Amino acid sequence: MNYRRLGRSGLMVSELTLGTMNFGGPTDESTSLLMIDKALDYGVNLLDCANVYAEGRSERILGKALKNNGKRHQVLLTSKVFMPTSDRPNSSGNSRHNVINSCMESLKRLQTDYIDIYFLHRTDWDIPQEETLRALNYLVKQGYIRYIACSTHPAWRTVEALHVADQKGLPKFVCEQPPYNLLDRRIENEVVPMCLNYDLGIITWSPLAQGMLAGRYQTADNFPEHSRATKKSIYAERITSAGIKIAQKVSKRAKENDQSPASLSVSWILHQPAITSAIIGPRTPEHLDDLVSAQNIRLLPEDLAWFDTLVPSGTNVSDHFNTAGWRQPIQNYIH
Questions:
Q1: Catalytically active residues, by annotation
Q2: Is the pLDDT reported for residue 236 higher than 70?
């Protein structure tokens, strides 16, 4: 496994991060425990989670795995706050109340005394950033979290938070976690330059464009049984005819080089400037084996140029920001 520096934190993290969103959902507990141990054996040292994954079951499984194998202090553990965890009015968002309460609940489920990197899952337009940063500062000072970060934030909002932190003497984000894959390259326009300028790491999610780049979907209106696109409309919206056509071209090229389309697509991300790590979210041990092989694929300049002909830099044929209000018309998120 190769390791890269995570922005201003100086942490060395594996270039592949194990995403745990499937654990406790499509992937049962025993298989999840096996995959966590297997990922650690491969050299993965960054485990990504969130309080809402599988309604908290993902955190519980991750905590159980690290308790069983005794490797908690050998790995870096993340979790997130923002998404609603109940129908109670204060169980979502980035208020001081919810940030602190959610962290405490995550610590219990994870069976740990601290979370290495704590993410704001989305930005909160209703809460001043100073309030959120002061809540995170409290958690840092108490030793409950060690670093703070943001996910799927607009670049200007991240920069604003960095300036507030400078002015008030509060902790700064060490990385951003945006969606990024060949079918949605829009972070290259503002997020990547911002992270480079402010020395923030970039840990990307959805490297396979929700399975399109792995060949999961053949049409944009007839989804495979049990696929994520059958679960929620936000997932279905990401599946497009244009994306599927490009995925088929990637699959053909992969097969010509005795590679899987999934591993080739992840390798493409690892060859892009400023990327620290790509989150892989395998559902089976076989998926994990295949995705880990991405780190062994070396792409030449002419290979990268070929990918650019499919989806030019900064453009998209699939919308993986469709859960972020700031990418939608302004009336959708201004109250």
A1: 53
A2: yes
Average pLDDT value for the chain: 96
Fold of 3-326: TIM Barrel (3.20.20)
Is the model's pTM score more than 0.90?
Answer: yes
Q: What is the pLDDT of residue 225?
A: 87
With a pLDDT cut of 90, the percent of the chain lying above it is: 93
User: How confident is the model at residue 266, as a pLDDT?
Assistant: 98
Residues 6+ apart with CB under 8 A from 246: 182, 183, 310, 311, 317
The per-residue pLDDT for range 65-120, each reduced to its tens digit, is 999 999 999 999 999 999 999 999 999 999 999 999 999 999 999 999 999 999 99
Task: Kindly list the domain boundaries of the chain, sorted by start residue.
Answer: 3-326
Measured between alpha carbons, how far is 37 from 34 in angstroms, rounded to an integer?
5
Instruction: Name residues whose C-beta falls within 8 Å of residue 155's C-beta, 6 or more positions apart in sequence.
Output: 190, 191, 193, 194
Q: What residues form DSSP beta bridges with 301?
A: none
